[in-house]
Design brief:
Helix 3 crosses helix 6. The chain has eight helices and two strands. It has a two-stranded antiparallel ribbon with strand order 1-2. With 193 residues, the chain is mainly α. The N and C termini lie close together (10 Å).
Length: 193
């Protein structure tokens, strides 16, 4: 991709990630429409990880990684764009490792999304690789911070922290992977690339 288009995708990815941080993901249960009407149910996650993966699928590895580097830079220095604020003190938050994982996760997703033809299977694979990368970095940071006592979670033991930040959000994040896969496939067909 030409550099101006990658820069544009990086800006779009940054804006989507910031916006997705504060929007909770919901799904409608069509089986209950006849009984109760259309009731949205929370997935227990925000659209943040979906934005990270979507920019990888649409903008490629460089744009995706740049957008997440910019997101971390903004959150650590200028603006409270993270879910619980921002600033250098956020390095002590147990979720910061997952934010760090956005960079390699977005890069991997973008790399695999453009390495194969844009099919649902290949886009789903690239999103899953990105999501697994985010969780691997996040878990590594969480474990290291726990043993070095760097996090602000002094009262929460390691296993409940792993459950809270990796295991419980995973089903909702997998649902977002499905949504991103379909959306990216459709958009790439419409944009002819």
């Amino acid at each position: 991709m030409p550099a101006p288009i990658e820069l544009l995708w990086a800006v779009v990815g940054l804006l989507l990630t910031i916006g997705g941080t504060f929007l909770e993901a919901f799904v409608a249960n069509p089986a209950l429409i006849w009984e109760h009407g259309l009731e949205p149910r929370s997935l227990g996650v925000t659209y943040q990880i979906g934005a990270v993966l979507l920019v990888g699928c649409l903008g490629g590895k460089t744009a995706a990684a740049l957008s997440q580097i910019a997101y971390l830079a903004l959150g650590l220095t200028l603006l409270p764009v993270f879910s619980q604020g921002g600033g250098f003190g956020y390095l002590q938050e147990p979720t910061f490792g997952y934010l760090l994982g956005f960079i390699p996760g977005a890069w991997l997703c973008g790399r695999f999304a453009f390495k194969m033809p844009p099919r649902l299977e290949s886009l789903a694979f690239s999103c899953l690789c990105g999501l697994l990368s985010v969780h691997a970095i996040g878990l590594s940071y969480l474990v290291a911070a726990h043993f070095l006592q760097l996090t602000t979670l002094k009262t929460l033991p390691l296993m409940p922290a792993i459950l809270k930040y990796s295991v419980y959000p995973l089903p909702g994040q997998l649902a977002l992977v499905c949504a991103v896969t379909v959306l990216a496939f459709f958009l790439r067909c419409v944009m002819f690339y």
